[in-house]
Amino acid sequence: MQKVRIGLIGTGYIGRCHAIAYAQVATVFPLKGLPVLEMLAEVTPELAQQRAEEFGFSRSTANWQELVSDPAIDVVDICAPNFLHKEMALAAINHGKHVYSEKPLALNAADAKEMAEAARAKGVKTLVGFNYMKNPTSQLAREIIANGEIGDIVHFYGTHNEDYLADPQTPLDWHCTKAQAGLGALGDLAAHIVNMAHYLVGDITNVCGDMQTVIKQRPDPKNPSLLREVENEDQASVLVRFANGAMGTIETSRIACGRKMGLTYVVTGTKGTISYSQERMAELQLYRHDEPQSRQGFKTLLTGPLHPDYAAFCISAGHSIGFNDQKTVEIRDLINGITAGDRMWPDFEEGWKVSRVLDAIATSAEELCWINVVEN
Amino acid sequence: MQKVRIGLIGTGYIGRCHAIAYAQVATVFPLKGLPVLEMLAEVTPELAQQRAEEFGFSRSTANWQELVSDPAIDVVDICAPNFLHKEMALAAINHGKHVYSEKPLALNAADAKEMAEAARAKGVKTLVGFNYMKNPTSQLAREIIANGEIGDIVHFYGTHNEDYLADPQTPLDWHCTKAQAGLGALGDLAAHIVNMAHYLVGDITNVCGDMQTVIKQRPDPKNPSLLREVENEDQASVLVRFANGAMGTIETSRIACGRKMGLTYVVTGTKGTISYSQERMAELQLYRHDEPQSRQGFKTLLTGPLHPDYAAFCISAGHSIGFNDQKTVEIRDLINGITAGDRMWPDFEEGWKVSRVLDAIATSAEELCWINVVEN
Amino acid sequence: MQKVRIGLIGTGYIGRCHAIAYAQVATVFPLKGLPVLEMLAEVTPELAQQRAEEFGFSRSTANWQELVSDPAIDVVDICAPNFLHKEMALAAINHGKHVYSEKPLALNAADAKEMAEAARAKGVKTLVGFNYMKNPTSQLAREIIANGEIGDIVHFYGTHNEDYLADPQTPLDWHCTKAQAGLGALGDLAAHIVNMAHYLVGDITNVCGDMQTVIKQRPDPKNPSLLREVENEDQASVLVRFANGAMGTIETSRIACGRKMGLTYVVTGTKGTISYSQERMAELQLYRHDEPQSRQGFKTLLTGPLHPDYAAFCISAGHSIGFNDQKTVEIRDLINGITAGDRMWPDFEEGWKVSRVLDAIATSAEELCWINVVEN
Amino acid sequence: MQKVRIGLIGTGYIGRCHAIAYAQVATVFPLKGLPVLEMLAEVTPELAQQRAEEFGFSRSTANWQELVSDPAIDVVDICAPNFLHKEMALAAINHGKHVYSEKPLALNAADAKEMAEAARAKGVKTLVGFNYMKNPTSQLAREIIANGEIGDIVHFYGTHNEDYLADPQTPLDWHCTKAQAGLGALGDLAAHIVNMAHYLVGDITNVCGDMQTVIKQRPDPKNPSLLREVENEDQASVLVRFANGAMGTIETSRIACGRKMGLTYVVTGTKGTISYSQERMAELQLYRHDEPQSRQGFKTLLTGPLHPDYAAFCISAGHSIGFNDQKTVEIRDLINGITAGDRMWPDFEEGWKVSRVLDAIATSAEELCWINVVEN
Predict the structure, then answer these.
(1) Hey, are the CB atoms on D166 and C369 less than 8 Å from each other?
(2) CA-CA distance, A35 to A7, in Å (whole number)?
(3) In whole angstroms, how far apart are CA C62 and each of B253, B362, C13, C68?
(4) Helices (H), C177-228
(5) Distance CA B113, CA B348 (A)
(6) pTM tops 0.90
(7) Which end of chain C offers a freer environment for a tag, N or C, measured as fewer CB atoms within 10 Å?
(8) CB-based contacts of C281, cutoff 8 Å, min separation 6
(9) pLDDT for position B375
């Protein structure tokens, strides 16, 4: 079987998730290729070596440039901080590597576009880590929509709210600076729900947004008595229109008290509605308007083996899958995409489209107007 | 005890609710005045008489002008179709009657303003039937906010969605015509959630809306093969800003499959969040961010005797109150307001403010821009 | 229309509920008779008179014997403490009055049987206030079962749990003494769920119970430093078998922390399941096993106008009814039963059957054995 | 690091779960030993070899006796059909192997006792696959109880209900025969909830059960027109008493329409209550009676990094873990137990105790009496 030699850059929060998914993917899914954990890059040789041992990689380096140019690497998997995605991806593409990058693809749409175009020009394959749409439950949502079970979509309401910066005493970190994060909640969180909206309803064409930095200053992490400026938005809301004419609203916040994994969506169609919360990632609410009126109601579907990609994890319904399992589906797509030409999506093109929507939201919020995303 | 002699105009859906509430109010609450069901008006003498018997009114008439000018009437209670509110209220005010009108106060803000000004000029008392804010559970929400339990409000998300026109085969009725309804979902439904936003967060100052008539034609009620134009919006979404600086989003729809009484709100503060759905009108979700991190979570409060106005119905918690009980609280406010000067709110001033917001939303949706509600 | 002249004894917690229901019943329902609030009895003349005014009764007395023998009374409505039910009911029956008694019918099955037999012998009509089965939602549950929508019933799980005595510092009151209450949680709470089991599934024929007085002593209400003995059970659980062969389990507790109105049931059939909690009294969960496997799930039905007795309160679905509305349905049944011969159920016969089950549970718990309820 | 060489017997439903857990465990947890997938046994050489490749085992065999006696095996992991557990475990113990067996440990308590005693005599370590108690959420439940946060436990209600045999047309399979399964729902499902009761509350000492075979005959799997006898119970309910005096009720069913993973528990204490459903395996309901009365309610805790064993999977709260992750915790316990002497529980002793309770329930249901589990 064809080998897919992985070079992983970055082993923080999301790098570890990748490692867990790599570890289990071949046991969960019958793959069309063989993932090989070839090389890992971290900021120091010691950390790189330690993590290579923990994650099962053969080699390690403190120099990511070495990794992206290594002839034994087929795929560069970028889990480094967001502001480095562009440089790393372009270098990898330049060396003819396939690239699997975490979201957001870049700090702004212009950079994302440059990356997507470079990949297309070089003919390499790409994948962006919008893992929530890989959840069997959200795949089921799409299947229900595609089947026409809820009719034509007329409205989408989506959120990605969390509360990791709700406490004003939480010190300023990289999330809060333009140089390292670009946008705030929009870039870190809304990227997921915009991608989900694209996945479930179709492309967003017009936006009109509002946003706010509610906590304007935060303690310096090293000197808490010093207050430093927060440079990007804590929360944003946006009216959207989709290419197919549907209306929608998307909201995001990093200060939404009580939301731990607040990616939610309600998709309303002419014949029914689906409703979902990522905090209950193994269930979907489905309403069908064509049922007898006295027996209408939202039905709680528990994700199970008759739904996409669930049976590989467990053949009983209602037994739940977890956060890392979504990454495992994503990596299955990566391996099968590279070795067998299976569809790899969301690719850099989609990563750019998401960035384009996010930038348009921010601009529209600054200029207090509607923006046509496509023409912009 | 001072008598409050009621003249009720209209006995349809909401008129019956008023009648039920009048029937029970004096047993539920220790009132400061004595409601007397004096006269009832309907479109024919027969119907008027029949309903007077059913509802316990002493006299009846098919001529509402007779009712508003009758010297034995203290309060004119308007449950007639929306397009008649203005004419009836102005006539009642002109005769020096207090006026208790169903929502929406009028078909547009200009009319509502005229009504509010007439009442102020004449010195009569007014009340608008935005009953959902009378629910003890929403009163509790306000109490929690007023206490500072969730800190400063930073975000409001509210909906009033129903699905009574979701089926495209439902014939066109008065809701769909500008002459009889003015706005569509905004006027019929969003009026409630805008009032609720005012009640919980404060005045809305700026709006930017979007709206759509999804089902553009409907069968004529008398000749179903004939299709007639729907003249107002099926759904609308709007970004709002409050006087206190909070952001918000409000949505409304009359074609939202599955929503039977979809008035919902999520109020996010700097220290916590409350979440509510009118379909579970006796419970409130409360999250406090200052709890120990490992024990944080949304708590389900069941409305009970320690919460406002509940104990009058039942002295045990969790025993639930119903839709008509909200009206009973409202009528308690009416009687005590007229006889003892207790606060009567939402009054015509608030009815006008709500209309002003709704008109601004519609205009902003047509002109694709933000509108300052106050200066407009 | 035939008058039904009511004599109400007792105006505490539940007496007030009756009063509210009497107040609204004729407006809510088109009745077949005319309820007349004739006389009210309380423990002192002052209190009796005050309550008569509040509740709208014409006359009052401090002597209930006077009430039960008054020729102008058609129905004696007993809301007095439980230990007085028997004496009052027998006196009323003796005077040929119809009797409407609160639950539990009596302190033990022998007394209840005597009452049922006296009523039968005298030919008077009876009704017991098991109001929860009057809720449109539970009526819907029965309709679903009767329709065969969930097949043959194979299992019933029911609870009536509350936490009003959860705090060990709550002083001893009448609930805790055999002389005034008879059984503890079984008599006060489980009476409702046993009646509900009869209503939904059929007669209980065999029981095997367990019970416990968890908090064995409580402070004397007048002298808190003095501890007094709790004489009856705080919690009980029981295995049951129904006449139709179904298995079941019923639990009750007055110290179940967190349960405010914890009447719940899950009824499992060969083709489906229904699930209900009185704390969400306007919704029912329904599961149908014959739906396509990938779309199976519990559906949340919101009670609405197509369900029994709801439309009289409100013609829109999902608008909720409240605790007192159940009593209103009950009183509708009372009036129509007496004047038009409509079915009045649960009658004293059912009140006795419930008592018989409760006594059998207690005996079985003491003797650690199964008991045949019917032969007992 | 010390190697722990695994010999896996059986690769069906649960064998695959083990394989997935072995694959990810070393990446998820910092282990104290190194699991080595040494040998795998299946019924034919071909299947054994195929699965060894899929699961990453070095060697394979169609002869499990060969595996249990192989000198290069440290732990025999038994995922074979239940009726084989005893023979295999005794053989493995006899060869001095540590044994990790799936539940139920054996078809009856006598066999389980023999196995536990053999292991003790030989000095080998044992573990039984009651994986649900390894879920961080149930570990949190135990932590809350152990902390005294809900006071002394007074009541336990637990279920393990599923609906895999709800359809009477589902052919008879091994679950339904005494020879292959022993007990029915009790053995297959209730084993888990009895273990959970032991884990959360303590040992069960007395039981009084009821049980039923509802669907008495099922089609022969090979000849559907032939009906064959179902030999064990479809559903059972049981009253229990715990060593610490608490009361409880446990129910189980394999025909409970709508339950896909219906392991649930409600633990009531003198100061609070916890409530859990495995279908929402990443959340726990917690009620504290000592909160201010007007703010009491059940709080939804989302499992997160401050709760036991969650952070290894993900450092953000509310991101959910899945079914296989529980097995991963279990295998972490296995590896660390064998190499570092960490506690390995539930061991064969507990497996036997669970079997003893299950047998006592069945006996008590047949003899219609209470049974003292310990003295039995």
Answers:
(1) no
(2) 11
(3) 57, 63, 18, 12
(4) 178-181, 185, 191-200
(5) 8
(6) yes
(7) N
(8) B320, C135, C137, C261, C320, C321, C322, C323
(9) 77
pLDDT per 10-residue tile (average), chain A, 376 residues: 97 96 97 97 98 97 98 98 97 98 97 98 98 98 98 98 98 96 97 98 98 98 96 98 98 98 98 98 98 98 98 96 98 98 97 98 98 86
DSSP state of A57: -
Each residue's pLDDT tens digit, B219-257: 999 999 999 999 999 999 999 999 999 999 999 999 999
Model pLDDT, residue A156: 98
Q: What residues in chain C have per-residue pLDDT under 50?
A: none
Q: List the helix and strand counts (H, then E) for chain D.
A: 11, 17
- Binding partners of C (≥3 Cβ pairs within 8 A): A, B, D
CA-based end-to-end distance of chain C: 45
**C-alpha to C-alpha distance for A35 and A25, rounded to whole angstroms:** 9
Is the predicted ipTM greater than 0.85, yes or no? yes
The 10s digit of each residue's pLDDT in D237-285 is 999 999 999 999 999 999 999 999 999 999 999 999 999 999 999 999 9
Interface test with D, best of B285, B286, B290, B296 (most D CBs within 10 A): B296
- According to DSSP, the β-strands at A371-372 and D262-269 are unpaired
Q: Which residue of A55, A135, A302, A320 is the best one to mutate when testing the D interface, meaning the one whose CB has the most D CBs within 10 A?
A: A320
| Whether the predicted pLDDT of D376 surpasses 70 | no
CATH topology of A1-126 equal to that of A135-279+281-318+346-365?
no
The mean pLDDT of chain B is 97
- Mode of pairing for the β-strands spanning B227-229 and B217-219: antiparallel
Nearest Cα to Cα of residue B245 among B164, B152, B357: B152
Which token pair is C51?
A: 């309550």
| Chain C contact set for B283 (CB, 8 A) | 279-280
Q: Quick check: helix, strand or coil at residue C289?
A: coil
B309 in the Ramachandran plot: left (φ > 0), alpha (ψ -120 to 50) or beta?
left
Q: Are D334 and D134 in contact (CB under 8 A)?
A: no
Class at the top of the CATH hierarchy for domain C135-279+281-318+346-365 = alpha beta
* Contact between C232 and C365 (Cβ < 8 Å): no
Q: For residue A102, give the DSSP letter.
A: P
What pLDDT digit, counting tens, does each position of D124-145 carry?
999 999 999 999 999 999 999 9
Contact indicator for D327, D77 with CB cutoff of 8 Å: no
CA distances to A255, A265, B111 from D47, in Å: 53, 44, 81
- On the question of pLDDT at B360 being above 90, the answer is yes
Chain D: closest CA distance from residue A47 (Å) = 15
∠ CA C259-C264-C269, rounded to 5°: 155
Residue length of chain A: 376
All partners of chain B with 3 or more CB pairs under 8 angstroms: A, C, D
Domain ranges of chain A: 1-126, 135-279+281-318+346-365
Q: C318 vs B261: CB contact, 8 Å cut-off?
A: yes
Q: Could you tell me the CA-to-CA distances from C300 to A294, B213, C297, D138 in Å, in that order?
A: 11, 29, 10, 27
Q: What is the mean pLDDT of chain D?
A: 97
Structure tokens at D152: 């002394």
- Those residues with Cβ within 8 angstroms of residue A71's Cβ, 6 or more apart along the chain or in another chain: none
Nearest to D77 by CA among D352, D333, D331, D344: D331
The encoded tokens of residue A358 equal: 């996010």
Mutate one of A18, A40, A324 to test the D interface: name it (highest D CB count within 10 A): A324
Strand intervals (E) in B90-200:
98-101, 126-128, 153-161
> Does the A1-126 domain belong in CATH 3.40.50.720?
yes
